Amino acid sequence: MVHQNENCFRLNHLDNSWDIETYIANGGYEVWKKVLAGEMSPQEIIDEVKTSNIRGRGGAGFPTGLKWSFMNRAAPGPKYIVCNSDEGEPGTFKDRDILRYNPHALVEGMMIAGYVIGACAGYNYIRGEFWEPYQRFQGAIDQARKAGLLGKNILGSGYDFDLFTHLGAGAYICGEETALIESLEGKKGQPRFKPPFPASYGLYGKPTTINNTETLASIPMILAKGGDWFCDLGVPNAGGTKCYSVSGHVNNPGNFEVRMGTPFKDLLELAGGIWKGRELKAVIPGGASTAILPAEKAMAMNMDYDSIAKAGSFLGAGSVIIMDDQTDIVKVMENLSHFYWDESCGQCTPCREGTGWLYRVLKRIRSGKGRPEDIEALKDVSGKIMGRVICGLGDAATIGLTSALEHYEHEFRHYIDHGCSIYDKQ
Ligand code: L3W
Ligand code: SF4
């Protein structure tokens, strides 16, 4: 049996799960009250988060407890907690449902994180298209403030802390943490060089912790049930549950919260299996920035960092894109290359120019006018982008394509030799 909805989605089946009454009736804000009462020190909370073995859910998988420990709570001057809800990775839509169905877990998680790092305020940067999720989250902040859980002198503790939301304006790059910070400051969203990391130079140049929505929304349950509880749900290298967005050629696409390490084939079954009675051809397991895997590798892997890495890809943000046995991989890559070209912020030449080259060559191949040298050109341009740019977008633009050429080069060659896909009748 596959265990489901033990953490972020645990309230989703309830009516008005986003309402503060529902949240409180199910144990919500108990941890926050304990923290304010001085029953858990910041160091004890960090230790518990380390014990939970939670790794960042935004894509990179950085250990959350370690990230929090980079902040010096006692240092003078403002510090900030920032939540990244700018969910824009193609295939990713799990944070959207946390905001819609369990916004108070995120409010509580942000307040606890803010307290631990000594922040004076927190900001949630929400994807601009997420109007309903934005309203639910803002509604949760308003309810928490009205209940005296947020604001000045919270519950008579003498502690002041407030939360604010910020809506993005449609740029994927603002999901990159330093571009997000620039955008929050009112500037054009462009990534900064790292280091310095936000922990030393973040929002308004001040120490900042930035975590993903799912990460922060997991904190109340980790502290309520204990780090060991969360850790034991997962695998040795990553604790807990994970929300996976499953899309593509399945009968029942959607979000599924399961334990880290759940076999991929069980997740596929939860999503209703492959549609139209077809077979699985390929999977992108972690969002468009991760390598594509052929069916046999995917069917043998489990949904955790190490197992997916062994199969040749990355867990990323947990966005599982399923492709059936009639999928034209060249068309998929043309589509993705257009996305990266369109979303490149343009400040690094290899990314700005290279993503356009990749898109134009793939478009030419797809139009039936590909040249024999085009495959080498795709590899060459990818090699000139990878590792030579400021942020992950440039690298990501090459990862899917490089893996597609590794596993499906014959499909590209078929286009070049015959002017059509392997599925077209000649
Ligand atoms: C202090 C150090 N802090 C690292 C922090 C750093 C960041 C975190 C991870 O990219 C990936 C990207 C996408 N001192 C530190 C330190 N940190 N060393 O740790 O850092 P990093 O640079 O490894 O990753 P990143 O820039 O945050 C995220 C991939 O995720 N992705 C999808 C993302 C999509 C979404 C979405 O739509 N929601 O997030 C999928 O694979 O390509 O590789 O906080 O500051 N020494
Ligand atoms: Fe901008 Fe691309 Fe450079 Fe990232 S890699 S900073 S998106 S130009």
Automatic annotation (TrEMBL):
<keyword id="KW-0874">Quinone</keyword>
<dbReference type="GO" id="GO:0008137">
    <property type="term" value="F:NADH dehydrogenase (ubiquinone) activity"/>
</dbReference>
<dbReference type="InterPro" id="IPR011537">
    <property type="entry name" value="NADH-UbQ_OxRdtase_suF"/>
</dbReference>
<keyword id="KW-0520">NAD</keyword>
<dbReference type="GO" id="GO:0045333">
    <property type="term" value="P:cellular respiration"/>
</dbReference>
<keyword id="KW-0288">FMN</keyword>
<comment type="similarity">
    <text>Belongs to the complex I 51 kDa subunit family.</text>
</comment>
<dbReference type="InterPro" id="IPR037225">
    <property type="entry name" value="Nuo51_FMN-bd_sf"/>
</dbReference>
<keyword id="KW-1278">Translocase</keyword>
<feature type="domain" description="NADH-ubiquinone oxidoreductase 51kDa subunit iron-sulphur binding">
    <location>
        <begin position="330"/>
        <end position="375"/>
    </location>
</feature>
<comment type="function">
    <text>NDH-1 shuttles electrons from NADH, via FMN and iron-sulfur (Fe-S) centers, to quinones in the respiratory chain.</text>
</comment>
<keyword id="KW-0285">Flavoprotein</keyword>
<dbReference type="GO" id="GO:0046872">
    <property type="term" value="F:metal ion binding"/>
</dbReference>
<dbReference type="InterPro" id="IPR054765">
    <property type="entry name" value="SLBB_dom"/>
</dbReference>
<keyword id="KW-0411">Iron-sulfur</keyword>
<dbReference type="GO" id="GO:0010181">
    <property type="term" value="F:FMN binding"/>
</dbReference>
<dbReference type="GO" id="GO:0048038">
    <property type="term" value="F:quinone binding"/>
</dbReference>
<dbReference type="InterPro" id="IPR019575">
    <property type="entry name" value="Nuop51_4Fe4S-bd"/>
</dbReference>
<dbReference type="InterPro" id="IPR011538">
    <property type="entry name" value="Nuo51_FMN-bd"/>
</dbReference>
<dbReference type="Pfam" id="PF01512">
    <property type="entry name" value="Complex1_51K"/>
</dbReference>
<dbReference type="Pfam" id="PF22461">
    <property type="entry name" value="SLBB_2"/>
</dbReference>
<dbReference type="GO" id="GO:0051287">
    <property type="term" value="F:NAD binding"/>
</dbReference>
<keyword id="KW-0479">Metal-binding</keyword>
<dbReference type="Pfam" id="PF10589">
    <property type="entry name" value="NADH_4Fe-4S"/>
</dbReference>
<dbReference type="InterPro" id="IPR037207">
    <property type="entry name" value="Nuop51_4Fe4S-bd_sf"/>
</dbReference>
<keyword id="KW-0408">Iron</keyword>
<protein>
    <recommendedName>
        <fullName>NADH-quinone oxidoreductase subunit F</fullName>
        <ecNumber>7.1.1.-</ecNumber>
    </recommendedName>
</protein>
<keyword id="KW-0560">Oxidoreductase</keyword>
<keyword id="KW-0004">4Fe-4S</keyword>
<dbReference type="InterPro" id="IPR001949">
    <property type="entry name" value="NADH-UbQ_OxRdtase_51kDa_CS"/>
</dbReference>
<dbReference type="GO" id="GO:0003954">
    <property type="term" value="F:NADH dehydrogenase activity"/>
</dbReference>
<dbReference type="GO" id="GO:0051539">
    <property type="term" value="F:4 iron, 4 sulfur cluster binding"/>
</dbReference>
<dbReference type="InterPro" id="IPR050837">
    <property type="entry name" value="ComplexI_51kDa_subunit"/>
</dbReference>
